[in-house]
Amino acid sequence: MRIIRAKDYEDIGRKTANIIAAQIQLKPDCVLGLATGSSPISTYQNLIRMYESGDLDFSQVRSVNLDEYKGLTPDHDQSYAYFMNENLFKHVNIDHANTNIPSGMAPDGAEEGKRYDELIRSLGGVDLQLLGIGANGHIGFNEPCDEFIKGTHQVTLAESTIKDNARFFESIDDVPRYAYTMGIGSIMSARRVVLVANGVNKAQAVKDCFFGPIKPTSPASILQLHPDFILVADEAALSLVADQL
Q1: Is residue 86 annotated as a catalytic residue, yes or no?
Q2: What pTM does this model have?
Q3: Residue 172 and residue 108: Cα distance in Å, rounded?
Q4: DSSP at 121
Q5: Among the options 67, 164, 208, 234, which is catalytic?
Q6: Residue of 112, 127, 138, 165 marked catalytic
Q7: For the chain, which ranges sit under pLDDT 70?
Q8: pLDDT of amino acid 157
Q9: Which runs of E-coded beta strand occur in the chain?
């Protein structure tokens, strides 16, 4: 595990965007695993600026997203398909035919999981997977549970996750209770994993997952075993482990 310390959220975005940009420049047709939520927005803003300045070309990039709410259509303003379009895809020259997100409207979770895992395999796997982390240690929508689930699957969202995401909806009652997510095995199969963590509300998760035992009740802790894992975190997120750095 490599830890890159950042001053603040904006600094996280710059440093993480530089890592992703280097991957694209090294392999123009790379497969990027992308994340949603508030954590990666600064990263995407920096990537857009690099594209606009002529320093980055997305024309051959392929992408697979981590997750999607079950029951939301791609044009729903809280779907992750909509999020990716608004926060990255429509601002760069990526071919939308090369972007992939689990289908929130798929009726059968098991079948959608098989389809998505086969899609990832058909692309040759993920070159770089971008992650955020939940306050409870979840990655993607892999919530704390009794085992690490390998493949893409349907998950029941934890109450803490529903409360965290309620700020994006008109009311907590509007937050979907189920989602499709890439599994731990899919994430761990990426050749490189970059996780961003910002703010004091993520400090306990950072401590538990990256400075504690590996266990499925702290899902992100499995990343300690990844051969090329980078944690990009600000001072607040590292505040509980400052004496161990």
Answers
A1: no
A2: 0.94
A3: 25
A4: H
A5: 67
A6: 138
A7: none
A8: 87
A9: 2-6, 31-34, 62-65, 67-69, 99-100, 128-131, 153-156, 178-181, 192-197, 229-234
CA torsion angle 223 12 43 86 (round to 10): 100
* Burial (Cβ within 10 Å: 0-12, 13-18, ≥19) of residue 131: buried
174 in catalytic set: no
Could you confirm whether 136 is annotated as catalytic? yes
∠ CA 15-129-93, rounded to 5°: 75
SS3 at position 62:
strand
| CA gap 217, 220 in Å, rounded | 9
The pLDDT value recorded for residue 56 is 98
- Give the amino acid at 223: L
The catalytically annotated residue of 46, 65, 100, 136 is 136
Q: What fold does the segment set 2-212+229-244 form as a domain?
A: Rossmann fold (3.40.50)
* Catalytic residue flag (residue 138): yes
Ordered strands of the 128-131 beta sheet: 2-6, 229-234, 192-197, 128-131, 31-34, 62-65, 99-100
Alpha carbon distance, N-terminus to C-terminus of the chain? 12
Q: Among residues 117, 143, 164, 208, which one is catalytic? A: 143
H or E, element range at 114: helix 109-122
Residues 6+ apart with CB under 8 A from 49: none
